[in-house]
Amino acid sequence: FINNFIIAMEEVEYCFKNVNNSCIKVSRSLRVRAVMYAILSSITIITICGNLIVIISITHFKQLHSPNNFLVCSLATVDFLLGLCVLPFSIMRTVETCWYLGSIFCQISLCIDNLLSCASIFHLCFIAIDRYYAVCSPLTYTTKITFKVVYIFIGIAWILPTIFSFGLIYTKANVQGIEDLVMILSCEGGCILMFNKLWAVLVSTVFYVPCVIMISIYAKIFTVARRQARMIKNMEEKISMEEKKRRENQKREQKAAKTLGIILGVFLFCWLPYFIDAPIDVFINFATPTVVFDSFTWFGYVNSAFNPMIYAFFYPWFRKALKLLITCRIMRTSIMNLFPNDFH
């Protein structure tokens, strides 16, 4: 029995062999690791490239310079930075089940991860507000949602999450009162973000409250859009050409609202499992298996890869810009003639 116990101890693999209190490394075959690297790397590449195309398209083509598209561009920047600054290191941590980049970089990575997740929620909130005015108050939309207002929205969507994320983690407010538990669960080679019960509830509130507000806004938008669609259908033969043009513009705004509503739905679908499990995990002393928690986290990350796919499916300008980028003709294309019929 003693010999078997010694052999079992020797077979246990640690993140750092010669370091006391090293985390235990999950042993995986080369084939399993290769498949995991391939899948997670593909998600990362799609996230980076897809969102980069959105950023280039909106910034390069003047016809796409609208308040709404600038919000979309800023959201794409959030997703792009997630793919560039967070996902490559999360791949290593997920596949190898160890963190080899030191505690300081671990803290920075966790801060950036939390920052970008919060920034996504803020951007989606402001996009919902923009679509509300575009569909429900089309006559006052251009006066209420100006470029100046959008710049303020974007500033808030970046500054508040930055202060919240870095302030919370670097003041260690998130682990006050559970220091002993953190010491027990911490080991060399680990990099996880823990919360006490208070902050677990508060962080969940930062997710759930904006989501409820956004769902309410989009419910109102689609109610108004349906009513407008019925009015347009009933008056189609009676209205003037100028009125028809205004109605067409309303249809475009409604289509944009529908597309961004789908983006919100996908965001909720991807992140809800994580935000359900994360606060529960705190109250059960972080007993969620690592593989389950990592799966929920990556399911949330996949949302950043889905967004460009949604743009590709619903927005003709995205498909045209992608074609121009692939064929290297983007710098030679006339900006004024690129999108003659659709700006959205």
TrEMBL record:
The family line of this record is: Belongs to the G-protein coupled receptor 1 family.
Residue span(s) of domain G-protein coupled receptors family 1 profile? 50-311
- GO terms of molecular function: trace-amine receptor activity
Q: Which GO terms describe its cellular component?
A: plasma membrane
Q: Which domain of life is it from?
A: Eukaryota
Q: What stretch or stretches form a coiled coil here?
A: 225-252
Q: Which UniProt keywords apply?
A: Cell membrane, Coiled coil, Disulfide bond, G-protein coupled receptor, Glycoprotein, Membrane, Receptor, Transducer, Transmembrane, Transmembrane helix
Q: Where are the transmembrane segments?
A: 34-57, 69-92, 104-129, 149-169, 206-225, 256-276, 296-318
According to its record, how does it sit in the membrane?
A: Multi-pass membrane protein
Pfam families from the entry? 7tm_1 (PF00001)
Protein's name according to its UniProt entry: Trace amine-associated receptor 4-like
Task: State the organism of origin.
Answer: Erpetoichthys calabaricus
List locations, semicolon-separated. Cell membrane
Q: Gene3D superfamilies recorded for this chain?
A: Rhodopsin 7-helix transmembrane proteins (1.20.1070.10)
Q: What InterPro entries is this protein classified in?
A: GPCR_Rhodpsn, GPCR_Rhodpsn_7TM, TAAR, TAAR_fam
